[in-house]
Amino acid sequence: MCKKxxxxxxxxxxxxxxxxxxxxxxxxxDFDRVxxxxxxxxxxxxxxxxxxxxxxxxxxxxxxxxxxxxxxxxGRMEKRFFRNYMYLVFAGICFLCWLPYLLIYFPGWISNxxxxxxxxxxxxxxxxxxxxxxxxxxxxxxxxxxxxxxGTYTGAVATFIVAQMIFMxxxxxxxxxxxxxxxxxxxxxxxxxxxxxxxxxxxxYATCMGKDVIFAGVLLLYVREIYLYLFLSDGKVRRRLGENxxxxxxxxxxxxxCVLRSNGILVFAGTAVGMILAGLIQKKMQSRSWHxxxxxxxxxxxxxxxxxxxxxxxxxxxxxxxxxxxTMPTQHIINAYVKGGEFTEExxxxxxxxxxxxxxxxxxxxxxxxxxxxxxxxxGNQQFIAEHKGEFLKAWMQIGLRNPLQxxxxxxxxxxxxxxxxxxxxxxxxxxxAENPFDLTVQRKVFSYDFGLWMDDFxxxxxxxxxxxxxxxxxxxxMLFCMAYALYRRQSCLPYLPYVMLFISLLLATPVHAEFRYxxxxxxxxxxxxxxxxxxxxxxxxxxxxxxKQS
Length: 551
What we know:
This protein is mainly alpha-helical. 68% of the residues lie in helices and 0% in strands. The longest helix has 29 residues, at 153-181. The radius of gyration is 25 Å and the shape is globular. The model is unreliable at 71-78 and 539-551 (pLDDT under 50).
């Protein structure tokens, strides 16, 4: 009986590994307590939470194994109308539910980052890849189209926003249509539709001119293609999907993932390596499957290198400055310095040549790097940092060996929002009509001014409610839980890998300890990941360790 509940050795290991992650999240999330405890006490807390998390996962997985499927039996799928109009219905509902946000906050919400991108699109400032230049060009395309049609900046911005709303509604409709074609129960379909069309953050983000929105949509499309790739060992499925078309989509979406966010290349590279290794390991996969993935990945990386190098250079696009990508190493060193860590004279001399360290404490914020970043830009010497990368890397490693606790504290403070259970931050506080040189202002097209205020009050109340029941960290916990259950049931973890890499990229380089838009791509994927793990959306036999284990 005990063995039946615990599972086999592989399942025990899976639960133990993920339970350890949860234990570390819980203990490190209360880091102030960690600082005053002994090593033995910390180890005891981790062990206690590890055992507790393992028991919870064991009980929950056992309950889930005994449940009825989310979807009806496969035989009932034949009775469902596989009509394209249902896809249009889902897309139309999403668009119509978001339309009030556009009409109340017309022409849409524009952040300070977007204002800079608009200025680049108009040629008023030098082009920069600080915010992805590829996204800036997408903005320029629809902005100029709208300006030619309407002759106003307001109409130009609205054109882009409407195009973005159409794109995102089509992406979410595709996910819902997959559920529909798989025979999902109407309750789960309605719940998924409410998630995408009814939650205010999705409506607001669809009407915001920000790079995170389109990236989230493209990443979800990329994950969907990875899921479809898992079925290619079945000849009938291969013919139905269109193998060449699938690899083409993987290549296109992979490239877009790379160029639509600065951390996109890390997300893609980690995912590509995982897919190639999975193809090599799985003996039941046709050998050409991983070969095709390898070819696709090489094409994407080649195109990205050409784009990031010769193309951007030819367009005279400036790259982000040196300090932009050095969030974590800088925070590690500064935290060690501020907390009285051990430094050698040579290291202090090197650091002072980069930035005056005597004033660094007044700018240091363990949760927000931009303050220090601006100080280094104005008072520091980034050219010196760029010319002595090897020396700074060596110093960072040596300082870390002498001051591991300070480095750990810096890492925890700077990233805690993405893995702590109850770290709550505003969802859309920064998204307002920022000051801009285009004289763009909010022009309500429907309802009264008082209703507009009520709408704003509604958004704030929803944000307060959301923060009481959910958090950025809980999104990560849910993603890892879905991944753990998929592995527990001998399913492939490849569809989860892009979001694992997204999470890792935040651990390596996030400038803010908790920012909803940075994990928005993971948040909107939750219905799909849940469907893969707990419904009849399981990966096909191409990636199963044991076909007989498939339900």
